[in-house]
Amino acid sequence: MFERGGREYGQGHYPFMVVLHTGFLAACIVEAFHRPFLPWLGWPMLVLAVAAQGLRWWCIRTLGPQWNTKIIVAPGMPLVTGGPYRWFRHPNYVAVVVEGFALPLIHTAWLTALVFTVLNAALLTVRIRAEDAALQSA
């Protein structure tokens, strides 16, 4: 995107996002060692986590070369309105929200699910505002 004249937005929250998501994965592993697998909860959460990954990859495939983890907008690039973007303005964030509670709950890691969901909601408030502003400025 930089080769196409792209400009990066929202750099201030990006380090927090990296720390939050890395901590989320680490917390899932650590807490799962101390929690039981409950089939009535774990199997449905596994299905949701896999579905979230399917949605994420659909987003990545739909965005093609416009996809990345940062907010980079290149002039003249059209707003993507196909794939899951037909129904949701930010479908990848739907995947992140579902993954945020489903992945830890596969192994009953309710504390990780709760803390990540709350912190991620705050992060997404900032992130979506920054992304929308960036898209409008392009």
Features:
138 residues, 4 helices, transmembrane helix, mainly alpha, ICMT_MeTrfase, transmembrane
Structure summary:
This protein has 138 residues and is mainly alpha-helical.
Anisotropy-based shape: elongated
Describe the largest sheet: 2 strands, antiparallel
Mean pLDDT: 95
Fraction of residues in helix: 55-70%
Structural class: mainly alpha
Question: Strand order within the widest sheet?
Answer: 1-2
Low-confidence stretches: none
The whole-angstrom Rg is 16 Å
How far is it from the N-terminal to the C-terminal residue, by CA?
A: 13 Å
Total strands: the figure is: 2
List the helices and strands and how they pair.
Layout lengths: L6 E3 L4 H19 L6 H25 L7 E3 L17 H15 L4 H28 L1
Antiparallel strand pairs: 1-2
Helix pairs in contact: 1-4, 2-3, 3-4
